[in-house]
């Protein structure tokens, strides 16, 4: 009887983002997100209520409504349906960008409940507008290369640090006391505990370090009489937020336009958060992902207008928590959303969370917000900083963002329509990065970065390199190597080059693609180490620059004789000169030591070793080209090397 071979079932690996954890872990990790998020979640309704003259009872209802809608919005964004929700571990919260415009709208309408109804009318329309423009906005993704997204993510992290610092000193406003040793102890103690857990433990304990830090810090403060939970007794067990609790929304054209502008600016921040989270969870972000995230923002904002809340966006605070804990599952955020819905329905539970002392929360926030900036640094490593335009984009956007963050009163010096931009370092820095990227990379003729030549004498830019004939290309870059030019000619065939990194890789690929005979011819063309021909410049300026870096062109006679003896011995052994990237050697003795190590190799191994050394030498010479062509990069490099 024949055995029937059944095809094996195909198994597809599940991305960590889609991993469904056990209920216990979902609850624990979700609680950690909520605790980290809570202070930022409730600050907007508190600021708004105090500014437009709402009562304490109305404020409590706003907080419950905010938490309830935050939970719904987070589930929409993380779980997703149809074309709504990016399905990443992104927690939704009320955007700080909307605070000033909403206060202005509310006061213009007379304050109190009347002002609140006009705010809700503007929020409803702005949410619907965001939902429908999402696919059009997502087509602008080409205007968000790493130089923009990296700048925006870095700005988000750095701009949030003062918020954490304010909490660490006791909270913004009259409760702040930077001179309090007790506040300092709570903040640094919480931070130190989180760091210690990350260092000592692995696995599960490391992932709940922030939660443990918050709980332990709060218990310590409670034991010392600095954490108060009296509001728990005063809170009701159940508090249901009903649609249009304060009345039917009122619509004002000016208010609607202002709120639509807020949502467009928020869309930029959301885009940055989506890219940041994509970097953290190692998931490629495309145009459709941005559209789905913005639709979720729009839908959540519309729901907020119905359920007495405000405009929603991805919360950067929790992006840092994902990076810190390395828990990438989006279902954790969905669990956090469910917990927030519960908190919105059970005021007593919310009051317990609200009892976390500001310094304890600030200590944890310092770690989380800084990790957002680190993600930005990682993104910026993909940027070609040999291109001076990118240096200008990053420096200007980060500089302006920090200017507004450090001096928030600056917004009072600009016209009213510009306050929404200058009122937030994240907003100003993000818009600056986007506009400068368009100005430098998309408007007018794009010359590309300078890659050779010298300012004043004529520099060669990347677009000019892409248009060069073979002979022009060889004449420009022949000095990267010694002797034959076959590798430069083959690099020319790999045009066009997208950036200076691509041009560098082309030379490397061409070098290692040569035949054994071609490579041997190239190796033999390199001069002997410490040769008088090199010292006299007869082997070319590039060789002189290489070997003078470690003093081989002005050795004393005994050292020169020793070097000549060992290089002659090497040539006799292998039939080609000893090739060493001298700039990698930290001393003359290290060069001699490397020769002794390599003399025992076989010929084929030394052939490969020589090619690797040639690639390193070419890399240094290529950097020399870039330094000469780019004065700012050159000055920076030389300054750092002379420190």
In words, what does this structure look like?
- 67% of the residues lie in helices and 2% in strands.
- The protein is an all-alpha fold.
- The strands form two sheets. It has a two-stranded antiparallel sheet with strand order 1-2. A two-stranded antiparallel ribbon has the order 3-4.
- The radius of gyration is 31 Å and the shape is elongated.
- The model is unreliable at 1-12 and 631-643 (pLDDT under 50).
Q: Which descriptor suits the 3D outline?
A: elongated
Structural class: mainly alpha
Helix content: 55-70%
Largest sheet: 2 strands, antiparallel
Beta content comes to: under 5%
Q: What Rg do the Cα atoms give?
A: 31 Å
Number of helices: 29
The parts where pLDDT drops under 50 for at least 5 residues are 1-12, 631-643
Distance between the termini: 82 Å
Please give the number of β-strands: 4
Read across the widest sheet, the strand sequence of neighbours is 1-2
Integer average pLDDT: 79
């Amino acid at each position: 009887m024949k055995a029937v071979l059944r095809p094996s079932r195909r198994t597809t690996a599940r991305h960590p983002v889609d991993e469904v954890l056990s209920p216990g872990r979902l609850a624990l990790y979700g609680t950690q997100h909520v605790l980290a998020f809570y202070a930022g979640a409730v600050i907007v309704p508190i600021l708004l209520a105090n500014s437009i003259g709402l009562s304490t009872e109305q404020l409590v209802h706003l907080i419950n409504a905010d938490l309830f809608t935050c939970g719904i919005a987070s589930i929409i964004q993380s779980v997703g349906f149809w074309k709504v929700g990016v399905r990443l571990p992104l927690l939704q919260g009320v955007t700080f960008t909307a605070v000033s415009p909403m206060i202005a709208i509310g006061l213009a309408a007379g304050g109190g409940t009347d002002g609140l109804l006009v705010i809700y009318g503007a929020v409803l329309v702005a949410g619907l507008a965001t939902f429908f423009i999402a696919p059009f906005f997502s087509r602008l993704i080409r205007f968000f290369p790493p130089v923009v997204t990296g700048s925006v993510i870095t700005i988000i992290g750095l701009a949030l640090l003062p918020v954490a610092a304010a909490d660490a000193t006791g909270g913004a406003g009259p409760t702040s006391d930077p001179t309090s040793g007790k506040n300092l102890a709570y903040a640094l103690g919480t931070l130190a505990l989180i760091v210690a857990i990350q260092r000592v433990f692995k696995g599960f304990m490391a992932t709940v370090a922030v939660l443990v830090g918050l709980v332990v810090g709060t218990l310590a403060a409670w034991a010392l009489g600095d954490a108060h939970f009296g509001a728990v007794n005063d809170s009701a067990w159940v508090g249901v937020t009903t649609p249009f609790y304060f009345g039917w929304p009122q619509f004002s054209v000016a208010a609607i336009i202002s709120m639509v502008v807020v949502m467009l600016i928020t869309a930029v921040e959301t885009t940055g958060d989506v890219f940041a989270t994509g970097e953290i969870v190692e998931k490629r972000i495309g145009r459709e992902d941005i559209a789905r995230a913005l639709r979720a923002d729009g839908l959540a904002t519309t729901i907020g207008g119905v359920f007495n809340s405000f405009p929603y966006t991805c919360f950067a605070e929790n992006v840092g928590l994902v990076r810190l804990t390395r828990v990438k599952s989006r279902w954790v955020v969905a669990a956090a959303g469910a917990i927030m819905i519960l908190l919105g329905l059970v005021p007593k539970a919310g009051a317990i969370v609200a009892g976390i002392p500001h310094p304890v929360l600030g200590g944890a926030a310092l770690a989380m917000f800084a990790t957002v900036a680190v993600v930005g640094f990682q993104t910026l490593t993909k940027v070609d900083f040999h291109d001076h335009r990118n240096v200008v984009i990053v420096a200007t956007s980060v500089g302006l963002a920090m200017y507004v963050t450090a001096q928030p009163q600056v917004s009072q010096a600009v016209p009213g329509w510009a306050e929404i931009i200058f009122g937030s370092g994240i907003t100003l820095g993000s818009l600056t990065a986007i506009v400068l990227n368009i100005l430098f990379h998309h408007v007018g003729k794009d010359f590309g970065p300078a890659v050779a030549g010298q300012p004043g004498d004529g520099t060669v830019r990347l677009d000019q390199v892409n248009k060069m004939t073979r002979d022009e290309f060889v004449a420009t870059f022949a000095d990267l190597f010694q002797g034959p030019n076959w590798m430069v000619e083959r690099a020319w065939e790999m045009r066009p080059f997208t950036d200076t990194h691509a041009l560098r890789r082309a030379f490397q690929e061409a070098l290692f693609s040569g035949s054994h005979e071609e490579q041997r011819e190239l190796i033999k063309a390199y001069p002997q180490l410490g040769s008088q021909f090199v010292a006299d410049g007869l082997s070319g300026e590039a060789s002189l620059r290489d070997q003078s870096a470690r003093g081989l062109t002005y050795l004393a006679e005994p050292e020169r004789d020793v070097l000549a003896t060992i290089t002659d011995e090497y040539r006799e052994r292998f039939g080609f000169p000893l090739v060493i990237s001298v700039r990698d050697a930290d001393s003359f003795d290290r060069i001699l030591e490397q020769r002794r190590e390599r003399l025992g190799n076989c010929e084929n191994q030394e052939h490969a070793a020589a090619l690797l050394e040639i690639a390193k030498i070419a890399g240094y010479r290529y950097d020399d080209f870039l330094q000469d062509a780019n004065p700012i990069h050159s000055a920076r490099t030389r300054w750092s090397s002379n420190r």
